[in-house]
Design brief:
Blueprint lengths: L17 E12 L2 E9 L9 E7 L5 E8 L6 E9 L15 E8 L1 H5 L6 E8 L7 E2 L14 E9 L4 E8 L2 E7 L6 E6 L9 E12 L2 E11 L8 E9 L4 E3 L5 E2 L7 E5 L8 E5 L14 E2 L6 E8 L2 E8 L7 E17 L1 H4 L5 E8 L5 E6 L5 E7 L4 E8 L12 E5 L8 E7 L2 E6 L5 E5 L8 E20 L6
Parallel strand pairs: 1-20
Antiparallel strand pairs: 1-2, 2-3, 3-4, 5-6, 6-7, 7-8, 9-10, 10-11, 11-12, 13-14, 14-15, 15-16, 15-17, 18-19, 19-21, 21-22, 23-32, 24-29, 24-32, 25-26, 25-32, 26-27, 27-28, 29-30, 30-31
The structure holds beta-D-fructofuranose.
Beta-D-fructofuranose binds next to strand 1, strand 5, strand 9 and strand 13.
């Protein structure tokens, strides 16, 4: 008899069993999206890292594949990226086969124990069969450690201006950019950030990519930090600026957060997706990832999100919205128009939700206090709302079910509202044990996990001041879990 997997996400990727953290090497190639991930196949807590692997035709329905990269004599396989080397700059391609090249950190635990400060360095592996099997490069490491304790998580992308590969690397309290013509020989170009941004923890898992806005182009630099997030634990900050092929120059000194929830970490973008920029993050937090009450696996990813830029008060901000591919899971809808709620409006008789999987989209006519409450017969409540006085969105999971496995888990999280119009629009994705809030078309965003004692079958809207909702659409979501 198999145990019921109480908290198994149904439309977020999670490994069938064992431990997962950061998404790695995400790349689109020949009709397939590849997701690699930090994986420990011998336990449900963090351990010697491998690269797990999953593939999908649509980023929604994932098939887990055999482990792609195993630890070797140079170390465990930490985070990194993958590219499609279409011009065979690396020379790994043979007989016209285009190589997929993974650029990752080797973490040498023996050297770490010997108190060396050079135990992390960058290495390569390549695949000539579209990601099925991988060969480590005999010349590893390709970027030895210059004496920096935290020297990891290479994100590599072809740069048209420099006509070279650019590696964005987390180097303790800053980002270091390197360039290479062939992925094998790397030259340091510049450093960024030791005197800018949030520094409550070590810098990890960066990404650098261009985005268009109003016919112009700006570069976004993502930097995950642990700890030091706006609502505790690990989180991802970003900078918007210019990158000239060598140096990154931010447009402003403001610290900005990609997601104000506590459960979107180490997110980076897919390579090779043309003019779409798509991110997935690890839907957990180092503060409690190792003790969350799931079994026989730990951790899931966020849904894939399309990134964009929006200007507010002369500042550029990153927006994230769910990819349109998720629409394939849409089921029955309950559409409502012109609803005024003062006190409580119980949607449960209309939604009759037993699965805990749904999407809720609503637009209000006024920006005033209201909340959306998910609940169950056990008295668990997850509250998502807007607080007018503070001008913040919030998710309160303090009474959402199992919270005491870690002292900081059962908290209320907030995100500043940036939009200045009188309307509020919200889109919520609920999948058994996670909530993703996309407010005002993706700015701000909050992602939180939670562990109710029973599925959250009740749904209501509350407002003491009274709220006019011009439209509300509740949509059942189907499961994307593959057999
Ligand atoms: C981020 C991180 C990375 C590292 C990996 C190890 O979550 O700490 O910096 O490469 O996880 O699993």
């Amino acid at each position: 008899v198999t145990k019921p997997e109480t908290y198994r996400p149904q439309y977020h990727f999670s490994p069938k069993a064992h431990w997962m953290n950061d998404p790695n090497g995400m790349v689109y190639w020949k009709g397939t999206y590849h997701l690699f991930f930090q994986y420990y196949p011998d336990g449900t807590t963090w351990g010697p890292m491998h690269w797990g692997h999953a593939t999908s035709k649509d980023m929604v329905r994932w098939q887990e594949q055999p482990i792609a990269l195993y630890p070797d004599s140079l170390g465990w396989i930490f985070s990194g990226s993958a590219v499609v080397d279409v011009n065979n700059t690396s020379g790994f391609g043979k007989d016209g086969q285009t190589p997929m090249v993974a650029i990752f950190t080797h973490h040498n635990s023996k050297m770490e124990k010997q108190k060396s400060d050079k135990f992390q360095y960058q290495s390569l592996a390549y695949s000539l069969d579209e990601g099925k099997t991988w060969t480590k490069y005999a010349g590893n490491p390709v970027l030895p450690n210059p004496g920096i304790v935290d020297f990891r998580d290479p994100k590599v992308r072809w740069n048209e201006q420099a006509k070279k590969w650019i590696m964005t690397l987390a180097t303790k309290d800053r980002i270091t950019f390197y360039s290479s013509p062939n992925l094998k020989n790397w030259t340091k170009e510049s450093e960024f950030g030791h005197d800018l941004g949030a520094h409550g923890g070590v810098w990890e898992c960066p990404d650098l990519f261009p985005l268009d806005y109003n016919g112009k182009k700006a570069w976004v630099l993502l930097v995950s930090i642990n700890p030091g997030g706006p609502n505790g634990g690990s989180a991802t900050q970003y900078f918007v600026g210019d990158f000239n092929g060598k140096t990154f120059t931010p447009y402003s000194k403001a610290t900005k957060w990609m997601d104000y929830g506590t459960d979107n970490y180490a997110g980076v973008t897919f390579a090779n997706t043309g003019n779409r920029t798509i991110l997935m993050g690890w839907m957990s937090n180092w503060q409690y990832a190792n003790v969350v009450p799931t079994d026989p696996w730990r951790s899931a990813n966020t849904v894939p999100r399309t990134l964009g830029l929006r200007e507010v008060n002369k500042e550029l901000f990153l927006t994230s919205v769910p990819v349109k591919e998720l629409d394939i899971l849409k089921g029955e809808t309950v559409p409502m128009k012109n609803l005024t709620v003062k006190g409580e409006y119980d949607l449960t008789p209309k939604t009759k939700n037993e699965t805990g999987l749904f999407k809720l989209d609503l637009t209000t006519q006024n920006a005033t206090d209201f909340s959306i409450v998910l609940a169950n017969e056990q008295g668990n409540e997850l509250v998502i709302g807007y607080d007018k006085a503070a001008n913040t969105y919030y998710i309160d999971r303090s009474r959402s079910g199992k919270v005491d496995f870690e002292k900081g888990f059962g908290k209320r999280h907030t995100a500043p509202r940036l939009a200045v119009d009188g309307k509020i629009s919200l889109s919520l994705l609920i999948d058994v044990a996670s909530v993703e809030l996309f407010a005002d078309n993706g700015l701000p965003v909050m992602t939180d996990i939670f562990f109710p004692d029973k599925p959250m079958s009740k749904l209501s809207i509350k407002s003491t001041t009274g709220i006019s909702i011009s439209s509300l659409t509740y949509t059942k979501m189907a499961s994307a879990v593959q057999g």
